[in-house]
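Quick question, first post here. What does this chain look like in 3D?
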Amino acid sequence: MWEFRIIIFSSLLSFSFLFAGEMDILLEKLIKKGVLTKEEANEIKGEVKKEKKKEKYSFLKDSKFSGDLRIRYQYDDIKVSSDPDRSRARIRARWGFKTDIFENTEIGFRLATGTGEQTSTNQTFQDAFNQKGFYLDRAYFKHKIGDFNIIGGKIENPFYSTDIWDTDVNPEGIAFTYENSKGFFTNFGIFPLDELKDLKDDPMLYGIQIGYKWKIADKDFKIASGLYITDNLLGKKLEDISPNYKPKGNTLIDSKFQYEYKPFDILFELTPFEIANKSVKIYGDYIKNIESNVDDDTAYLFGFSIGKLKDKNDWQFEYNYRKIEADATLSILSDSDINGGGTSLKGHKISFGYQVSKYSSFGITYFIGQPLSPRTDKRNTLQIDYLIKF
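> Answer (accepted):
Ran it through. C-alpha cells below.
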C-alpha cells in the first residue's frame, strides 16, 4: 500500500498543473474505492502543497544577493565660482540581487540611494535627519545564446570604459554583447535619452564597440574602440533631457544643445609588470567627437594603478590625468567627481585604498580640477571613504 501511495504522490506532483479542485476529486474517488483512507489522502494533499511551495521558490537557491554601504567625508575647495567652499558628510547604500530564473536567462534588480541624478548615488547628511530616498538603480533581464547576450531594462553599462564615463551611469534600453573564447568582444546598445509626445522627436543614444583581450608575454592586454551617436539632441533643453543633473561644459544657447554628439573612442589597458608583488595596470582613453562643425571636440585620459583590493591588508594606489574639451562627449554622462562634473575641464585623480577586512575597506581620493573655459569651475575635491560590502 505504501508503495502505491508513493506512486500516487509522485504522479500528482508530476502533474502539478492540476487545479486543487481536480486533485481533490481524484483523491475522493480513491477513498471511495478503498485505495486510500481519508487520513492518507489528507497527508498526500499536504505533501503535494509543500513540494509545490518549494518549487515556487526554488529560484532563490540560484539567487545572489549583494549590497554595500559607504560613508564619505567630502570637501570641495572651489577657486573660481562664486559658490563657497563646501564640507559635508555623505552616505551611499545599494542592495540588490540577480538570479537565473530558467536556463540561460538571468534577471537582476538593485536599489540605490541618491537624488535622482544618473551620475551619483550619494545622499548628503542634512535636513534635520530626514529620511533618505531609494531609487531604482538597475532592473534588467539577460538572455544568453551561446556567446551572445541580450540585455534589456535599466542595465549595467555594457561598454568597456574609463573614468571619462561616470561609473554610476546605468543606461536604459537594450544591449547586445558578444565575447568568444579567443578574446574577441563586441557590444551594441540602443538607449532612449528622453521620451517626448512625438516618437520622431525622442533623443536617443546609440553605441557600438569592438575589442579584443589577450595576453602578451603572459600579461593581460585589452583594447577596444567604439562610436556613440546621439540623435534628436540638437535644440533640446538640458533641463528637459536631464532635469536632476545639469552639469557644465557642453555648448548651450538658451540652455539648448547646439550639437549632436558622435564621440569616437579608443582605449586600452595593460598589466606589464609587478611592484612589491602587486600588479601594475596602465590604461588610456582617447575620444574625438567626429560630428561636423564642432571645435572643442577632443578628450583623453591616461593613468596607472598598483594592486587591487580583495583580501585583508591589500592596498591599491591609482593616478590618472584627463583633459575633456567642452564638446568631446556628453556632459550629462561624464564623471561627476572631478571639478564638479561635466566637460570643459582637465585635472588629476590621486587615490589610495586599504582593505581593512574581507568585507570592508578605507579609501582616500583627491581630485585637482581646472577649467578649460569660463563656464566651468576650478575646484579641488577631497573624498575620504569607509566602505562595507555584503
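Residues 12-18 have pLDDT under 50 and may be disordered.
Helices lie at 2-14, 20-32, 38-56, 238-241.
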